[in-house]
Specification:
Organism: Clostridium senegalense
Order of helices and strands: HEHEH
Radius of gyration: 14 Å
Number of helices: 3
Largest sheet: 2 strands, parallel
InterPro entries: AB_hydrolase_fold
Structural class: alpha+beta
Helix content: 40-55%
Number of domains: 1
Protein name: Esterase family protein
Distance between the termini: 35 Å
Shape: flat
Length: 82
């Protein structure tokens, strides 16, 4: 996916990315999530996109999604002081 983003023109988009710090090893034959997220973040920042990135002390689970959903919504469509 990062190869495709390097090739296309920049679009008027914002991105919110997060990964659990426990996603630091592969699952079966899948790539390591932390590495994938860091790679795509670097490509997006290099292209000049507005990227909000954070790590959360969790894995790929409901705890992480529940705790970071609000941060993602604020980063993409909201204001920090409501």
């Amino acid at each position: 996916m990062t190869k495709e983003y390097k090739l296309i023109d920049k679009l008027p988009l914002k991105f919110y990315l997060n990964a659990g710090v426990l996603e630091d090893r592969p699952y079966d034959t899948e790539p390591i999530m932390m590495e994938v997220i860091n790679n795509i973040k670097d490509v997006l920042v290099e292209k000049g996109y507005d990227v909000k990135y954070e790590n959360f002390y969790s894995g790929h689970d409901y705890l992480s999604w529940g705790e970071t959903l609000a941060n993602g919504l604020i980063a993409l469509i909201g204001k920090e002081s409501v």
